[in-house]
Amino acid sequence: MVKTGYYGEFGGAFLPEILIPTFTQLKEEFARIKADPTFWEEYVHTMSTYSCRPTPLTFAENLTHHFGGASIYIKREDLNHTGAHKANNVIAQGLLVKRMGKGRVIAETGAGQHGVATATMAAKYGFDCTIYMGEVDVKRQRPNVFWMEQLGAEVISVKDGSKTLKDAMNAAFRDWAQNMDDTHYVLGTASGPHPFPEMVSYFQSIIGQEAREQILKYAGKLPARIYACVGGGSNALGLFGAFMDDPVELVGVEAGGKGLPSKLHAARLASDQATIGVAQGYKTYFLQDDDGQMRETHSVAAGLDYVGVSPILSHLSDTGRVRFAAATDKEVVDALRLSMKKEGLIPALESAHAFVQAFKEAPDMNGEECIIINQSGRGDKDIFTVADAIGDPQWEQFIREKAEDYNA
Ligand SMILES: Cc1ncc(COP(=O)(O)O)c(C=O)c1O
To answer: Which residues are near ligand 1 (CB < 6 Å)?
Structure first.
């Protein structure tokens, strides 16, 4: 018998008793909207009038010529309002919150994209909003913190543990347990306890539905392979969903950080260093030590810097349906530079992980084949990190002069 909320042996909802009524309400409401076609209609209408759906599928002609193999297409989730696929999930959860009659939303964020998207949604629908963010991420994503605050959200810097995404998620769960009557936790990815993995993948499935239709229209055939970066798993599952039953190879790319041997990475499924465990309310592969303590992870891309991964992806990895690879920080910056120079595209550092793997494989594919890379977000937010990595002297001088202006 298949247990609800499980994908193979992964998933479940390991919750403190106090949260059970809230999760029951959420599961019931999710079941109701899934069965109600007017919800999906309202969602698509909102996304097409408030965000930029359908997002384009761009033929990357110059990159295709550069590599000389498969035709490269790029799904442009960066063109969503607030600059990433995160908008899909938060707007859908916002519509759900309205139906549940709650007035406050909370969220965790790593790169800050999900925080900005949630603060935007809260402003639009008139909800109070609190965002939890690890102290390390607050520092490296200051522009996003600025926007969250301007949009009216309270941003709480989490100083526990490694001060990154998992710690922000723990803090958000603590808040929820204390305020569940009026508060909804807008979880930002396809991880966490049931029903979040299923619910977030369902909302993000709009990416793959559009991409499948677009590639059939533009290329006249299905892609041979499709690539997406993997943090918690939402943009990957959103793209993969519509191709699951097709003869299409699905490739998830994780953060290789400073390289797998260094152990400073977030490659849960692309390395053999993660083991199965239960944490943050669900069962999946975690990067943990022999005592079950979560290891520190590292990535140049804050949004991929997470110890766990969607239970759905853990299952799809074990069954072999999705292949996983890792891209190092250095490879990511190189791929980003190439995309800027050849196509005028600025993918987020997170998205650039998918570009790395696609660029490695495209030259060996034949010219009749095509591939899709998901550009999950835009890179403008990464200007500080990228400028540092590239070592641009003029940027350094600009920052120094700005600091002098402030001190004057
Ligand atoms: C632009 C972008 N892409 C990808 C991710 C990773 O999240 P997920 O794996 O849920 O798509 C993030 C997370 O913050 C992000 O901001």
So the answer is: 84, 86, 110-111, 113-114, 189, 229-236, 303-304, 348, 350-351, 376-377
Q: Given the structure tokens 């009038």, which residue do they identify?
A: 49
Q: Does domain 6-48+85-196 have CATH number 3.40.50.300?
A: no
Q: Is 108 a catalytic residue?
A: yes
Tell which atom from ligand 1 comes closest to the C-alpha of 78: 1
6-48+85-196 and 52-83+205-389 in the same fold: yes
| Given the residues 310, 314, 339, 376, the one annotated as active site | 376
**314 is known as an active-site residue:** no
**Strand order from edge to edge, sheet including 154-158:** 154-158, 128-134, 104-109, 183-185
Beta bridge partners of 129: 105
pLDDT, tens digit, 9 for 90 and up, residues 146-156? 999 999 999 99
pLDDT number for residue 1: 61
Q: Shortest CA distance to 385 belongs to which of 145, 111, 129, 10?
A: 111
Using DSSP, state whether 7 is helix, strand or coil.
Answer: strand
Residue boundaries of the structural domains of the chain: 6-48+85-196, 52-83+205-389
Rounded distance from Cα 27 to ligand 1 centre (Å): 24
- Is 157 one of the annotated active-site residues of the chain? no
Which residue's CA is the nearest one to ligand 1's atom 5?
A: 303
Give me the catalytic one of 108, 210, 254, 361: 108
Split the chain (408 residues) into runs of 10 and give each run's mean pLDDT. Answer: 89 94 95 97 98 97 98 98 96 97 95 93 98 92 92 97 89 93 96 98 98 98 98 98 98 98 98 97 96 92 93 98 98 97 97 98 98 96 83 90 87
Ligand 1 atom with the shortest distance to the CA of 378? 1
CA of 70 to the centre of ligand 1 (A): 26
Using the atom order of ligand 1, give the atom closest to the CA of residue 114: 14
β-strand partners of 157: 133
pTM reported for the whole predicted model: 0.96
H or E, element range at 329? helix 329-343
Angle at 342 between CA 239 and CA 338, to 5 degrees: 75
> Which CATH number describes the domain made up of 52-83+205-389?
3.40.50.1100
